[in-house]
Each structure stands twice: as structure tokens, then as C-alpha cells.
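STRUCTURE:
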């Protein structure tokens, strides 16, 4: 039987809506802000590795987080027990935060009738046996493509989250969020050498939109191609050189090296390299960066954020000029600006904070071939793995999982072991050419901040950066 998402938290528990609203109003009287965040979720993961179904997990969870905000102080009490007794205990705990504060609770966020994704539950959409058959087919297809395939790992994940946000005036926001992803890893062996290729895709939809045969066969082809290319790759050069970043997933460098520095909390606390620079040039002319949570079915999109604010199309940098930061309600209030729909939390047990949704660079005016042809000797980075960033200084280190030499304006031999080393704000000023082929990533991004993990999207067109430090193995 389908779950009634309209009354989920009151039809299946002993919570009564009217009494819940009275308890909430009493707990937050005199506070500056706060809300009751109710959550129900289902999650499944299937992992098929080396011809065997290794993992098949299914979990359900529920709970609430009651938050009170007074000035810069925030109190959160949470419980996985949805009961009036648990809510009263939480109310008593958070009331200590606003004791004697005498604030006036902030106005509720505006409502929205927009819906960016279907509320259908992907976990229940396809039977368990069909999911296993899909993973078996992926494994068999990958091995049949090339005799050098030594190992195939395919994982399928599905999430379904229902949230309801109630404010002390009784206003309510609700969202039903599906999320699916397919991840592939293929190891190829030639002699004593083994190399890995990876690919994944997903979004806020049911499985049907992502696991059609043409889709997963295309994903297998991409992972296998990367693995075989890495078998041929030679050592990466080291030194300062021009770097061309491919469109799409390489936007993860923009996300990490620049995006976090544009989140409101870091700037309010003056710990970001971009603090106090609104209206000033922070990037080369022609560079425009946005955070957009309004794209239908994208992994990082949200109809409303986790405070109830509708997500938005937020211009962060326009033609190289810093225009604004990503804001949750607390930091927006303290900085005297409007929330931007970027208040996100991992679950009911976590505080909301400013987080990215889908962060990407807009198109420029150059053709990709023109950009590559402009580089006499350099690096073409197609895909990235892990990276590290210092928010305060902006320093970053990123590892390339697929990269090539550029020699005399042409993409040359593949290389392995290249890392990009630099400083985010400085790298923005080194962007010399911006392509006209903007592409979003395939839907696999997950972002960590202060121990919380949320799904995100990244993207960019082909771009050229001048004189970037490359760490290599050659």
C-alpha cells in the first residue's frame, strides 16, 4: 500500500498535529528562529562484485529534529522516536537556548507550488529480482566486451525521503525526494599491470529513467574505456603548465576550490578567502558561476531546502565580479541578506548549514577545439578523483583519474598520476578561455562538510587555465 505522504508523521504515530504545533510554539517562544524537521526515509544498496551479489541492504529510518536559534546560538534536540513524549523532552532541552532571549521569531519562508521531481518511491518501483538481473547483465556485458576485463563491480542505490518542516506559527512545508544512482568500476589487466576505470550516473527520479539498456551499456562503455586508456598511460609530467579542463565532472574542482568558499557561514565568520569581497573582481572576465537548485530531476536539486525555503538560481560570480554567497536562514539573518534556499542537513539529527546544490560555470564564447588548439604544451584533464581543499587559504590538491598530454594544440598520449595543485581564488584569475559546451556531471556527486554528507551536482564548459602547478610521476 502506498504511503500517505500528506499525513505520514501523524497517521502512523501518536503525534497529534494540533498538540505538536502548541508544543513547538511554546518551545520557540522568544527565539529568533527555529523549526520542527520531521523525516522518514527508505534506503537500499545492492553491490554486485566479481560475479557475485555481495551486498543487499535495505533500511528505513525516521525521526525529528527540533531547533531553536537565538542570536548566533543554536540548539538542536533530535530523536528517532516520533512520539509526543519525545517531542516534549526535546522542547524542554531547546528552550534553554532561547531562555531570556526575548527575540521575535523570524517570518516563515515563502511557499511554492513548484515540484522538481516525482514523489514516487524508486525503492518500490522495481522488484529485487529485476535489480539483481540488471547487475548480472552489466557484469556479463562488461566481461564480453574485452578479454582484459579482470573485475567488475556494479552498485545500485535508491533513496526515498519524506520531510515536513513545521514552524511555530503552524506553517508547514513538505517535500518528497527520490534519489537513485548506478556506479561502475572495471579493472583491466594486461601482463602485470592492472588499471581501473569508473563511471556512474543518477538523479532524482525512479530507476526506470536511468537503467534502460542503452543507459547502462553506455555507462559500461565509459568505465571500460577509462580502464583501457589507463593501461596505456605513461607517467605524468611535473611543473607549471597550461591546463585544459573537460566539461562536466571536472567542475568538481570548481565546487571544492571555489564553491565552499562562497558559503555564507565561512564568510560571516571571515574564514573564507572570499570574505568581504562582494562587488569586487575575484575571477577573470567572462567567468560566471551559479548555484542552481531548481533544475528538474538533478541530483543536487531541491524543491525546498531543509529549512523550507524554496531553492533558487543564485548568481555567485558574474563576469568575474563576486555577487553573493549561498545562505541558510541563520547566516542570512546575521548578515542582513535574504536566504537563498541553501540550508541543508544530512538528516533530522543534523543542524542545517549553507551548502551547495548544483554549482556550475556558465558558457563562454570559445569552441572546445579552439581552446585545445591554443595550448602548445600542457595537460588535458577529463576526470578527477579525490581532492583536498583548505577553505581559509583556498589551497587545493586534486588527483586526475583520466588525463592527456596536449602537444602543439592536439590531445596526445594518456598520462597517469597527475595532480593539480593551486589556490582556488588564484585559479579563478588564471582562466584564460571559457568554452561554449557547458555540461553537468552525470549525477554522482556527494559533498562533505563538518561531517555531514549531501547529494550535489557540478558542471562547467571546457576551460583553459594558464600556468597551473601539476604534480606528476615523470
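SEQUENCE:
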Amino acid at each position: 500500500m502506498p504511503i500517505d505522504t500528506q499525513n505520514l508523521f501523524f497517521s502512523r504515530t501518536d503525534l497529534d498535529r494540533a498538540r505538536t504545533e502548541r508544543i513547538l510554539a511554546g518551545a520557540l517562544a522568544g527565539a529568533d528562529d527555529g523549526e520542527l524537521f520531521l523525516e522518514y526515509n527508505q534506503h537500499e544498496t545492492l553491490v554486485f562484485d566479481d560475479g557475485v551479489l555481495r551486498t543487499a541492504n535495505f533500511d528505513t529510518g525516521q525521526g525529528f529534529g527540533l531547533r531553536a536559534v537565538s542570536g548566533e546560538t543554536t540548539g538542536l534536540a533530535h530523536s528517532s522516536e516520533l512520539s509526543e513524549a519525545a517531542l516534549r523532552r526535546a522542547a524542554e532541552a531547546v528552550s534553554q537556548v532561547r531562555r531570556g532571549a526575548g527575540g521575535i521569531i523570524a517570518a516563515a519562508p515563502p511557499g511554492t507550488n513548484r515540484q522538481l521531481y516525482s514523489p514516487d518511491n524508486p525503492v518500490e518501483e522495481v522488484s529485487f529480482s529485476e535489480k539483481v538481473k540488471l547487475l548480472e547483465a552489466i557484469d556479463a556485458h562488461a566481461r564480453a566486451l574485452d578479454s582484459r576485463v579482470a573485475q567488475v563491480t556494479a552498485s545500485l542505490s535508491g533513496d526515498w525521503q519524506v520531510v515536513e518542516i513545521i514552524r511555530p506559527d503552524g506553517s508547514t512545508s513538505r517535500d518528497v525526494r527520490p534519489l537513485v544512482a548506478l556506479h561502475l568500476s572495471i579493472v583491466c589487466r594486461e601482463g602485470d599491470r592492472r588499471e581501473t576505470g569508473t563511471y556512474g550516473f543518477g538523479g532524482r527520479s525512479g530507476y526506470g529513467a536511468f537503467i534502460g539498456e542503452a543507459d547502462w551499456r553506455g555507462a559500461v562503455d565509459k568505465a571500460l574505456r577509462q580502464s583501457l586508456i589507463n593501461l596505456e598511460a605513461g607517467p605524468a609530467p611535473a611543473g607549471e603548465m597550461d591546463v585544459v579542463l573537460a566539461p562536466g565532472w571536472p567542475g568538481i574542482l570548481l565546487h571544492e576550490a571555489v564553491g565552499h568558499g562562497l558559503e555564507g557561514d565561512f564568510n560571516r565568520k571571515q574564514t573564507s578567502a572570499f570574505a568581504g569581497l562582494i562587488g569586487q573582481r575575484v575571477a577573470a572576465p567572462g567567468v560566471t558561476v551559479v548555484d542552481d537548485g531548481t533544475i528538474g530531476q538533478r541530483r543536487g536539486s531541491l524543491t525546498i531546502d531543509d529549512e523550507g525555503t524554496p531553492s533558487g538560481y543564485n548568481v555567485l560570480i558574474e563576469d568575474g565580479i563576486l555577487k553573493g554567497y549561498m545562505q541558510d536562514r541563520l547566516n542570512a539573518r546575521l548578515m542582513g541578506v535574504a536566504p537563498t534556499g541553501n540550508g541543508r542537513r544530512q538528516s533530522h539529527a543534523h543542524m542545517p548549514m549553507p551548502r551547495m546544490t548544483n554549482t556550475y560555470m556558465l558558457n563562454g564564447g570559445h569552441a572546445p577545439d579552439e581552446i585545445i588548439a591554443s595550448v602548445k604544451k600542457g595537460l588535458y584533464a577529463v576526470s578527477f578523483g579525490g581532492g583536498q581543499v583548505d577553505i581559509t587559504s583556498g589551497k587545493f590538491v586534486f588527483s586526475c583519474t583520466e588525463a592527456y598530454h596536449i602537444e602543439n594544440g592536439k590531445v596526445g598520449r594518456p598520462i597517469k598520476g597527475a595532480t593539480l595543485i593551486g589556490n582556488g581564488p588564484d585559479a579563478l584569475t588564471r582562466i584564460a578561455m571559457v568554452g561554449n559546451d557547458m555540461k553537468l556531471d552525470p549525477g554522482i556527486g556527494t559533498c562533505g562538510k563538518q561531517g555531514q554528507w549531501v547529494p550535489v551536482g557540478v558542471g562547467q564548459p571546457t576551460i583553459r587555465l594558464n600556468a597551473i602547478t601539476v604534480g606528476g610521476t615523470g
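REMARK: The mean pLDDT is 95.
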